[in-house]
Amino acid sequence: MHLRPRIVVAATAAAVVSVATATAVTNTSYAAAAGCRVTYTVGSTWAGGFGANVGIVNLGDPVSGWTLRWSFAAGQTVTQAWNATVTQSGSAVTAVNASYNGSLATNGSTSFGFNGGWNNASNPTPTSFTLNGVACTGSVTPTTSPSTPTTPTVSPSTPTSPGVPPVRTVRAYWLKPTDVAYDQRYPDGIANVLREAQRYYRQELGRTFALNNPVVEVVNGDHPHAWYEDTPNGNDCYWWVVFNMQQELMRKLSLRAPDTRWVNVGEISAEALCSGGGGGGGWVILSGHDADGAAGIGGNMNRWYGGMVHELGHAFGLPDSTSTDGTPMSASFYSYPNTHFSQAQKTQILNGPYGSFFS
């Protein structure tokens, strides 16, 4: 999962509209078993640096791609990696499979390594890891239950289309906590940001991704906004809101991470002081300040357009740029629309795992 610089905006009270009528739907879920075991070994240390190897064993159903996350506790930093794309923001680290080691059968294993920096005093092993959003405890649990009743929002003004959206499309969601009033600005605004991103990708690549009708599926959350903000999910509170949202969307809508059927964009109206978001592995997960920005509450819309282009780039497989280089995969996205993909980035998107989504 890759991050972008975070801007917190003050949210105004949402306008109250007519109460949506909720219709209970029974999803046909695949009840995948999920579980993993991780070994983390520091092989060597030197002044200011160390080398480590991370081994992954998939104990659950086969996966076609993986994202491993952990947090450092003593200020360690990743400086170089191999056999995975590794990024870091603060203490939070995300490793995404390389093109050749993403498929893991049940009991299949892989490994990657990295060099890092440390303070020459303390270099503790991370205490927990997640693989595709599932805690690696060495045991296996089902990620969903067969025929789980779910309650997606059906609003009089934004009815959800019956059935499942076509595959190889970008599928978007606004998750509304139980204590947040329905506000049409949110699904409309998120849809408009995605349409602008769709236009930009066509401008840059000569082809673009498909959106669905409706563009944004409104999903009633199971909890008040404070639950998403205060319920730990990973070691770094930066991720709590968006991980809680992502896992609820996966459970309710039988989604996967990564998901080869759709690129999924989730936004939630919940925001703590430490909340953030990011993209990677076919997902964009964003917290309340992004939802507010899309709804027109967060100031300059070009910032939110550029941010969505940036995070979709991560979802399609691009890493962050190593410098502010004029491309939207760097801080240059703040200058949107005066930013452009490099030829190498265009090639990587179209030849990457989601290249078939572009036409």
Describe this structure as you would to a colleague:
- The protein has 359 residues and is α+β, with helices and mostly antiparallel strands.
- It has two domains: 2-16 and 148-357, Collagenase (Catalytic Domain) (3-Layer(aba) Sandwich), CATH 3.40.390; 34-141, Immunoglobulin-like, CATH 2.60.40.290.
- Helices cover 20% and strands 28% of the residues.
- The chain has six helices and 18 strands.
- The protein has helices at residues 185-205, 225-230, 240-253, 288-294, 301-315, 343-351, and strands at 2-3, 25-26, 33-46, 49-58, 67-71, 77-82, 84-89, 92-97, 109-117, 130-131, 134-135, 140-142, 149-150, 169-176, 211-220, 262-268, 278-280, 283-286.
- The strands form four sheets. A six-stranded mixed sheet has the order 1-17-18-16-14-15, with helices on both faces. Strands 6-9-4-3-12 form a five-stranded antiparallel sheet, with no helix packed on it. The chain has a five-stranded antiparallel sheet with strand order 7-8-5-10-11, with no helix packed on it.
- α1 crosses α4 and α1 (185-205) crosses α5.
- The longest helix has 21 residues, at 185-205.
- It is globular and about 55 Å long.
- The protein starts with a strand and ends in an 8-residue tail after the last helix.
- Mean pLDDT is 84; it is low at 1-32 and 143-162.
- This is CBM2 domain-containing protein.
- GO terms for molecular function: hydrolase activity, hydrolyzing O-glycosyl compounds; polysaccharide binding.
- InterPro entries: CBD2, CBM2/CBM3_carb-bd_dom_sf, CBM2_carb-bd_dom_sf.
- Residues 140-164 are annotated as: Disordered.
- Keywords: Signal.
